[in-house]
Amino acid sequence: MADNETTQMPPKYDPQAVEAGRYDEWLDEGLFKPSGDQKAHPYSIVIPPPNVTGKLHLGHAWDTTLQDMIIRQKRMQGFDTLWLPGMDHAGIATQAKVEAKLREQGISRYDLGREKFIEKVWEWKDEYANTIKTQWGKLGLSLDYSRERFTLDSGLSDAVKKVFVSLYKKGLIYRGEYIINWDPQARTALSDIEVIHEDDKGAFYHIKYKFADGETTLDGKDYIEIATTRPETMMGDTAIAVNPHDERYKNVVGKKVILPLANREIPIITDQHADPEFGTGAVKITPAHDPNDFLVGNRHNLERINTMNEDATMNEKAGKYEGLDRFEARKAMIQDLQDQDLMIAIDPIVHSVGHSERTGVQVEARLSTQWFVKMKPLAEQALKNQMTDDKVDFVPDRFEKTFSQWMENVHDWVISRQLWWGHQIPAWYNKKTGELYVDEQPPKDIENWEQDKDVLDTWFSSALWPFSTMGWPNTEAADFKRYFPTDTLVTGYDIIFFWVSRMIFQSLEFTGRRPFKNVLLHGLIRDEEGRKMSKSLGNGIDPMDVIDQYGADALRWFLSNGSTPGQDIRFSYKKMDSAWNFINKIWNASRYVIMNLGEMTKPELPDKASWDLADRWILSRLNQTVAQVTEQFEKFNFGEAGRALYDFIWNDFCDWYIEMSKEVLTGADEQAKNKTRNVLAYVLDQTLRLLHPIMPFVTEKIWLTMPHVGDSLVVADYPETHDDFDDQKAIDDMSRLIELIKAVRNIRAEANAPMSSPIDVLIKTDNGALQTMFEANRDYIDRFVHPKTMVIGADVQAPKLAMTGIVSDAELYVPLAELVDLNEEAARLQKEVEKFEAEVSRAQKKLANEKFVANAPADVVEAERQKQTENESKLQATKDRLAALKAEQ
Questions:
Q1: Residue 574 contacts by C-beta under 8 Å, 6 or more apart in sequence?
Q2: DSSP label at 709?
Q3: Please, are residues 73 and 718 in contact by the beta-carbon 8 Å criterion?
Q4: How far apart are CA 602 and CA 880, in angstroms?
């Protein structure tokens, strides 16, 4: 029944009025919770948890809109759906934000101490979590908040401890040395986010590394030339690297050189890290002072010689330079190299150098002991699983190759972070003996132990997200048993390595199952010029501002309709205008329908025997649209689903069926009126259901305003196809009728003859069925064409002064003696000939393409053949008419 309070629909779509309060009503009614129907098939999605570092951006809006569309459709289709919300503590990012805020107050985390600092971060988290939840609401996301999780909540903390301890006891977690960012003034490790890159003046120092054997030469010289920007680290050099494909150095690979100033021999090795196109193509390798060199050192088992103290003064490994500040040591080394004739040249440069966000000093790459996950066995397990029925399906499937390549070449994962905000590592060191204790529970004599101060990488906890949020490690938890593995993950292709791959191998290791059946990967949202949105460019768009201007449904329509799996999309306000216009069209069409429904209580289709051509056609087109949209949703082709909906709603329903209904509704036949009202209501009801997953607010508002059965579209039945709606003849006949109407309208436009001016229409056809169909639908032709007289037959003669239209199996003539210039009409017909010739040629080329005929679906090939036949017929008829017209001149 129509909603008494909202029976009146204003003439213009107002998104703010439509959306106000609706989300809270859905929440109050508990419509987003799983149905609990044990007979229903479960379908679950976990939200990629946004970081509690700020507001959601357009990428989040896109990501979550796609998830909401999937879950809303599945809910309407009768699945027992769970969409689980939550957020990520985002260790590095969040700590940096809070520290920056404290610095504005002149406070550091050290002033507060660990406990008080963590309290401040929780305050930040609570504030931004509330902001994010408000934004989720504005977007209309149908999340089950009763199951909301956070990566630092107690349940997830238990899961993290269990995973860490289990991997450690299996030998898959170990401690080892790694390069980190180091602030020598604050004497602390820095995360990447705490390092600011600025342009500094520097130089390339070209140094001679002489061959050790005294015999080897390179281009007639007794040395290999090395260029470096940091000569102060050279006392830690352990090799020279050249590219294995660099022909210039093939004869010196394996030789040794003397490290200048140290008189120590080091080898010349080959490694991909050396770029033949950069500098001399030969680079010094200092594993303890450069992250790339560290990896090279790992590959070649090179010694790691740390030549600096925590405060960036040189240590005993630096020989005579011990005790000097790093920059003083640089000056002293340069002078010594020059004095010993080992300096070839000094080239001044300006280069990007990392500085501490905290103190502003230049950051050092420092060797440090860290915790690692041994990746090879976990990666092999993930790759092996992709060969089974429990594999993860990547959409688009090309990203499976990206995943596999990364897994095949994976390096061990450094999981420790020198932060305070995060999961503190469950490892303790005995204060007296230094013994290491790793367990989920602390040692009983805790007073004798000190816990590892480091925390785990944020990705360590988010890698467990699909199963830890469901109650694991309690494998008997109701949600874990019912909803895991989840069905679909939606995320950006840019975090396949960081997150997707880690969820896959952790899930397989700890549950024996894939974490999700499908992973739908989308691209980035770019600006109108195709640039990535960023603060530096100032081209970011706040989705909440877009919603304030256009409404959530318009933003969701744009995000879904521009969506091709794996591709980037460009945001533009022009597209937002189009989205709003489309919804306004739906609004006005619905308003017209509702105003004409009279006392109807619920839409019920009348007996099929009473359906006229327009009814049979619109219901058949509705059936096709339901099939197309459902199929494209299954394939995650939301852009194709949107195109099918747009075409049906704008063209078929609004421009044709509603216009045709006016002929009936303004007539005197009450039975026909009642029949048309019911068809209008039924098609509108089904269309709103199809649209609801994409545009939840406006569809709910309209549906509750019109006669309906049920409380909300959120839990209404999703449309299904009906065999008795399929009517190809109705579709063919209506396409002929529309073709005729458009042809006459075009003639009117060409001749500048307004609808008010009387015209005669002559239709020549020897197709008896077509003639019968046109005769039977004279009312529609009258409404759309306004002819004074209309003659249909095989013996119709073309008048001398007339404009001509060629349609399938018929020619039509409009005598406009006073208006027609025969020369202009001949020119127009010539253009038509050229148009049909181009169409015929295009079809011939397509059908001559063996690959197209062999690979395209049979119905697509057949449709192309039919199109070719029709256009050949139209071409011949147009040529004949042109020839006849020229004979008349």
A1: none
A2: S
A3: yes
A4: 54
Give the three-state DSSP class for 563: coil
**Joined tokens for residue 53:** 């570092």
Write the single-letter amino acid at 855.
Answer: N
Both structure tokens of 358:
């905290």
DSSP string, 659-690: HHHHHHHTSS-HHHHHHHHHHHHHHHHHHHHH
pLDDT of residue 6: 44
Cα 678 versus chain centre, distance:
40
For residues 466 and 454, what is the distance between their CA atoms, to the nearest angstrom? 25
Please give the Cα distance from 153 to 423 (Å, whole number). Answer: 10
The CA distances from residue 736 to 640, 729, 829, in Å, are 26, 11, 20
pLDDT tens-digit readout, 466-507: 999 999 999 999 999 999 999 999 998 888 888 899 999 999
Residues in the chain: 889
The answer to whether the peptide bond before residue 473 is cis (omega within 30 degrees of 0) is yes
Burial status of residue 226 (CB atoms within 10 A of its CB: 0-12, 13-18, 19 or more)? buried
Question: Dihedrals φ, ψ of 226, to 5°?
Answer: -120, 130
Half-sphere exposure of 680 (CA within 13 A, CB side): 29
Structure tokens at 738: 């529309």
Most confident of 171-175, 398-402, 406-410, 665-669: 171-175
Q: How far apart are the first and last CA of the chain?
A: 65
- Which burial class, exposed, middle or buried, applies to 497 when counting CB atoms under 10 A from its CB (0-12, 13-18, 19+)? middle
DSSP state, 373? E
**In whole angstroms, what is the distance from residue 787 CA to residue 660 CA?**
16
Please name every residue paired with 46 in a beta bridge, in sequence order, or none if there are none. 84
Q: Is residue 82 within 8 Å of 456, Cβ to Cβ?
A: no
